[in-house]
Predict the structure.
Amino acid sequence: MAIAKAERLMNLALCLLGTRRPLSKRELRESIEAYVEAFGPDRGAAGSDDSFNRMFERDKDDLRELGLVIETVENLDGEVGYLARRDSNRLPPITLDAEEAAALGLAAKVWQQARLAGAASGALQKLRAAGLPEDVDPYEAHGALEPRIPVHEAAFEPLMLACRDRRPVLFDYRKASAARPEPRHVEPWALECWRGHWYLAGWDRDRGAERVFRLSRITGKVRSRGSGFTAQVPDVVTVRETVASWAGEIADRTALIRLRTGSGYPLRAKATSVRELGDGWDELEIPYGHGLDAWLVEFGPDVVVLEPAELRSDMVERLRAVAKG
């Protein structure tokens, strides 16, 4: 049904753009195949005129919402006609300076590993054809920069499309402290890459609250469920800030841990002090915030929490959950 509607809207737009004079509803009804099939002369069911009028008005409103300027013209006989003048629906000339061109070039290179690679490359070619000077190389000014956003998770593409189309999804999610994945029914808002990992922000229907999910912890397929969102989408979705607070980035305390020598370099980079203990162990003081236990457990037997007691208790609980799985 979505494809049929898109085709009908495209044909209506082409009709309105291609005509040199206003076309009446009757002429459009007889010219567009989708209207002919649904409301042609052999479909003489009662109320077909009303049904066509409702569909046409919806289609016209949809095209206007997409940005097409449709004019309504009344002729001498009082008949109303419609057309979309090309000069009213033509974008102004595109002019880009060297820095803007370089930024677009870098943005196109970012998506080399995702489904958007073809779209990004095609968009750049269209911009060049529409006005980007041939002597401006989008990559030359910043040739040393190679921006890449790795997309290895199978959940990325269906979630990206669900965010775009605002479709609720269902997937199985394994928390760091859980032995088995649990089903999550989510209204997806935004995807964002932070420190090499992709995260989804959205409304968790089962918990009735905003949640952030790490894509690498989604297991199985992402399935679409239902239509329409039940919660209001915020104007700004702070994925990075939320993840940072959960990962201990926002900390007001410190924790004391033992770390095996030659391991845990991300922890060493955060440490405010490091002391060698000997026997293959070092003692580190690191910032302590919400979610630090979930991060530390990823280092397995290379980390031992000394202080505070609640962090040590959370770590033990998480490790026991993993052992039971």
The mean pLDDT is 80. The radius of gyration is 28 Å.
